[in-house]
Amino acid sequence: MTRVRRYLPWYAFVLPPFALFLLFVIYPTLEAFGLSFSRQVGAEQRFAGLYQYSRLVGDNVFVSALFNTVLLGVAFLVIVIPLSVVLASLINSLARRSTIFKVIYFLPQVTSAVAVAVVFNYVFQPDWGMLNTLLRSAGVDPLPLWLADPRISLTGSRAAATILAVYVGLGYFMLIVLAGLQSISVELYDAAAIDGAGHFQAWRYITLPSLRPTFVFLLITGSIDAMARFSDLWTLGGPGGTPARSLQTIVMYMYQTAFVGFDFNLAAAIAVVFFLIVFGLTLVSFRRLLADGVRRRRVAALGPGLITDRDPDMEAGA
Amino acid sequence: MTRRSNGTRGRVASLRASRRGMERLRQLAILAILSIGAIAMILPFEWMIATSLSRAANVGMPLYPRFWPPDPSFFNYMVALTNLPILRFYLNSVIVVGATTVGYLFFSSLTGYAFAKGRFPGRNILFIAFLVTLLVPFEMRMIPLYSLMRDLHLNNTLAALIVPFLVGGFGTFLMRQYITTIPDDLVDAARLDGAGEFAIYRHVILPLCGPVLAALAVINIIWRWNDVVWPLLAVSDRSNYTVTLGLAFAARGSQGIYVGVALATAVLAVLPVVVIYIILQRHIVRGITLTGIKG
To answer: Could you tell me the residue range of the domain that residue A199 belongs to?
Structure first.
């Protein structure tokens, strides 16, 4: 009796939020699996095994959306990681306060991918956009078409989308690399200086190896982010990824299938495939970060889950 | 990286002086590179503001870059404000962000406290249930969530933008990790004084959670303010749009026609966030580094 009374406040704390959680997080997740194994017959859902998945396999639009997602993600990471390392190293070696640079580089992240996409839609306009007017002043001819050119090229729509992503994400990547740089012990550099190592050697043999956990973290969370890319590309070209589906990612195709084609079952199958990819990447990151936690006290103290860059809830939601 | 060049003893004075000169040169070069980068980051914003202040931009855009309006006026802003219920969008965003932040912080800290300090049957299973969903991205469940909202008759209401985001695995986990580090003695002492669990939560735990609550609030505000995927699904009536969704639609509708007005709309949508960011930049930047989470 007294024991029950002792438990009571804890249940009062936990159960009401858990009820919300059950309804808005757990139930829809299970329902997505359920829908993906069903088909609509009249007004009811019937079990259909892997039927929806078999439709996906032969679906060229899905395959090309998957290809776009991966291509855009790889291009983004290949550019943003080296760039953020260079910028973070420069900021780290500034003798005076560097807050102003951090604030400016992080600004596009705060103003949201949508707002930046709206602006960049005009920046990339082929005739009078900011970028092409600057290129015209510099004597470039012919001018690139950017978002009007669906081909895979360094001046096409995918290149423009990658420039946009780098512009938005650079500040965040830089802050994380900077945190990594500042956790490297100064003694290491002192020892290297005594051994006669120059700036570059210290950077090559101390800085880069010490940043390995940071790279792994950014690589994996960056990939997960890239897999879920939607807002900015939707703002640029709608759910179809205009021009010519060149900017359609799998989440955009999922959205289009559900809310333009009204095929919720196929959309659920896309959702499950998307989940499996992200789940795989997350598992790798959790294992890596747990291993790194032994080395990095900050991670160990806060717990590995904190270091997931993708907002696991809403975006995640809940 | 630079600090190690200091404090080496027994150097010849002149060598030291030339080193200092080199170091100053290096600092200048670094400042120059970083400044060029910073200008590149700001330039699109500057161009957006300049164009939004030009009435002529609606008729024809110049073929060479112009970073200052030839005919500065607020005409485009007047049009943007009468064209679109932007103030309404603002109100919606403020309601959604305010309600979710209050609810999210409250429920996260409450469950976090229970999971960190409570002893009750089923605690671990419940906590694991919260944790496991961290692995499930929102996009995975957004379609069934949309159907659920329709069945609850919440679709196309602001409530649909709020209720799914009151409780989350991430907030619960973050708070639980943080509260675990608070010594049990503090809680036990309050309990001996006869305080109930809620009083302990309210008067002992919460006051100690300031920094982590601030970080969580900042993250939640950025998420909710900038989210476009869920509002796109959940609300269809323009009077329920958030600022971000309204901006996305407005820009797509008038693309290429009235550039000045479209960019004035973009400025109106972005400006408050930028102002708040500049005021709170220290906390935001620290919150990002503390949690590793971005917007």
So the answer is: 14-86+178-307
Q: What region, left, alpha or beta, does residue B137 occupy, with left being phi > 0 and alpha being psi -120 to 50 degrees?
A: beta
8 Å CB contact of A9 and B244: no
Please check whether residue A7 lies inside any domain of the structure: no
A197 inside domain: yes
Q: What is the CATH number of the domain that holds A62?
A: 1.10.3720.10
The two three-digit tokens of residue A181, written as one number: 């740089």
Q: Rounded to an integer, what distance in angstroms lies between the CA atom of residue A253 and that of residue A257?
A: 6
* pLDDT category of residue A312 using cuts at 50, 70 and 90: very low
Bond preceding residue A142 cis, omega within 30 of 0:
yes
Confidence of residue B253 (pLDDT cuts 50, 70, 90): low
Contacting B residues, span 194-233, partner chain A, CB-CB under 8 Å: 196-198, 201, 219, 222-230, 232-233
pLDDT for A300 equals 34
- Does the distance separating the beta carbons of B262 and A122 come in below 8 Å? yes
**Predicted ipTM of the assembly:** 0.85
Q: What CATH architecture is B84-253?
A: Orthogonal Bundle (1.10)
Question: Residue B137 and residue A275: Cβ atoms within 8 Å?
Answer: yes
